[in-house]
UniProtKB/TrEMBL annotation:
Location of the Type II methyltransferase M.TaqI-like domain: 133-234
Organism this protein belongs to: Candidatus Schekmanbacteria bacterium GWA2_38_11
Stored PROSITE patterns: N6_MTASE
InterPro entries the record matches: DNA_methylase_N6_adenine_CS, MethylTrfase_TaqI-like_dom, N4_N6_ade-DNA_methylase, SAM-dependent_MTases_sf
PANTHER family in the record: DNA METHYLASE (MODIFICATION METHYLASE) (METHYLTRANSFERASE)-RELATED, DNA METHYLTRANSFERASE YEEA-RELATED
Keywords, ordered alphabetically: Methyltransferase, S-adenosyl-L-methionine, Transferase
Family as reported in the entry's similarity comment: Belongs to the N(4)/N(6)-methyltransferase family.
Protein name (database record): site-specific DNA-methyltransferase (adenine-specific)
């Protein structure tokens, strides 16, 4: 009897994808959930309830709630009633959603389970804010036992009515998917469960800090599933984000351990599964609530090694900032080659083998910026600086790429760093030569890159992320820097040097 629901779900998804334009679906951030992913998500719910109330925010064709209804009906101990509230305001998909709801009703009727499904053709954010806020004049709205969602992946315009409405409700987020998850969590009753599939970009960085802190205060994280290949999970939708599936329970008490699993694509029968201490994934002392995704023993080894470095940038007297020169805003002051009255302007294209090689002869980027009163605040006094790229391509071997700006190789009184570069400094001035060399070598080590990837699911390397990383002490950096002469050692030697320092202070 349960086949009645799911045997047509993938056909419905493919029919809708075939009848609609991918660019239009992308414009509203809509990516329908493949059946095997929906069934896996439904399997993550653990607590049995007699009266099940399911929320599906941004339901699409209804595959998520349908997968869970099928799971409930197929259990030995079935619930005595099932209610579904499905929010969807895309008129083009409503006919598919209504068909799915009818199939759920028919299946439950055959199983002798009272079922009531409600399709709400309204904006979920508006409705959820009204339901989740309680004051002297408004009683608390309805609450759900389960929320399952694949929310829209779309940035929220800072000037939009949606952004203003969310901010007024204390929900400060930059992407719709975070707003949907946050609001869904608020609509759960105590002990209620939430399963969602979203990009993993929320795991770190400043943009999702308020979301992480609020979500992890309200909910306990129980399970995270990662996809080793983003192309295989949503292959026919060409989704570019690295996605994760996660299961949370609305309760303040955190578990001692949580489950982390991973699969190459959506063949969950071949998943790698491990149980890890909760405080390794979310450190209770981390005010930013970064989520570290420790998938295997190699990841544990990375953590064990890097925690031997106990210094922070603040303890080292260092600061990391984003390059001050935004080239499209300063275009009139930029020059392709150096001329009188200009100073060097450094882009990532100037990074060559661990050092800044200036000027660049490629002709793709400017090499200089004019010194004028209008540009003075964009410039820094010459000195040793350590730079990292802010963006790397998915295909690049490394996420963190560092280079040394050596003033002796450039010969200019001032320098400008373009906005696609992060730079390490001491109160707006350069570092000592050996300290800069030690820092650059450490940043270019495999152990640093691997640890960074444990909590960073995107290609952007933010200054905020770099501030959160552990660093060797000043003495250790000076020892490491002694190995850098006029060139950066090769990768094998860099890793040998840093590993030796880890072992010496483990």
């Amino acid at each position: 009897m349960t086949i009645e629901i799911t045997n047509t779900l993938d056909a419905i998804r493919k029919a809708y994808n075939g009848s609609s334009c991918r660019s239009e679906r992308s414009k509203i951030g809509q990516f329908l959930t493949p059946l095997n992913i929906a069934m896996f998500m439904a399997s993550l719910f653990k607590r049995e309830r007699k009266n099940v109330r399911i929320l599906d925010a941004g339901a699409g064709a209804g595959s998520l709630f349908a997968a869970y209804v099928e799971t409930l009906v197929s259990r030995k101990h079935r619930p005595i009633s099932i209610y579904v509230a499905a929010y969807e305001n895309d008129q083009r998909i409503l006919s598919y959603l209504k068909e799915t709801m009818k199939r759920c009703e028919s299946t439950c009727k055959s199983a002798g389970i009272p079922f009531h499904g409600e399709i709400r053709e309204e904006d979920f954010i508006t409705a959820a804010i009204a339901q989740s806020e309680e004051d002297l004049f408004n009683k608390q709205g309805e609450r759900f036992t389960h929320a399952i969602l694949n929310p829209p992946y779309k940035k929220i315009n800072g000037q939009s009515a949606t952004r203003r409405m969310l901010n007024a409700a204390g929900i400060e987020v930059s992407n719709l998917y975070a707003a949907f998850v946050w609001l869904s969590a608020r609509l759960l009753e105590n002990g209620g469960e939430l399963v969602a599939i979203t990009p993993r970009s929320f795991c770190n960085g400043p943009y999702f800090r308020r979301f992480r802190v609020a979500l992890l205060n309200m909910m306990s994280l129980c399970h995270i599933h990662m996809f080793e290949s983003r192309k295989k999970a949503f292959g026919d939708d060409d989704v570019l984000q690295e996605n994760v599936i996660y299961h949370l329970v609305r309760e303040e008490q955190k578990p001692e351990r949580l489950t982390i699993s991973s699969s190459e694509g959506s063949d969950f029968n071949k998943s790698k599964i491990r149980s890890v201490p909760y405080n390794i994934v979310v450190s209770p002392s981390d005010r930013d609530a970064f989520i570290h995704l420790v998938v295997n023993d190699a990841d544990n080894l990375v953590i064990d090694k890097i925690v031997t470095f106990a210094a922070s940038l603040a303890k080292l007297g260092m600061v990391v900032s984003t390059g001050r020169v935004v080239d499209f805003r300063a275009r009139q002051y930029l020059r392709p080659i150096a001329e009188e009255g200009t100073v060097p302007l450094i882009y990532p294209c100037h990074f060559i083998s661990g050092f800044v090689r200036w000027p660049s002869e490629s002709g793709k980027k400017p090499n200089a910026i004019v010194v004028l009163p209008q540009t003075e605040e964009l410039l820094l006094p010459t000195g040793y600086y350590v730079l990292t790229k802010r963006f790397t391509a998915k295909e690049e071997r490394r996420r963190v790429v560092a280079a040394i700006y050596d003033p002796n190789k450039v010969g200019a009184a001032y320098v400008g760093f373009e906005n696609h570069v992060n730079y390490f400094h001491t109160s707006g001035k350069g570092l000592s030569a050996n300290l800069a060399k030690g820092l650059a070598l450490y940043l270019n080590s495999s152990i640093f890159d691997q640890y960074f990837r444990l909590f960073s699911g995107h290609t952007q390397v933010n200054a905020t992320d770099l501030r959160k990383m552990p660093y060797p002490s000043r003495e250790q950096l000076l020892r490491i820097g002694a190995h850098v002469k006029d060139y950066m050692p090769d990768q094998a030697m860099i890793d040998k040097i840093v590993d030796k320092e880890c072992a010496a202070h483990g």
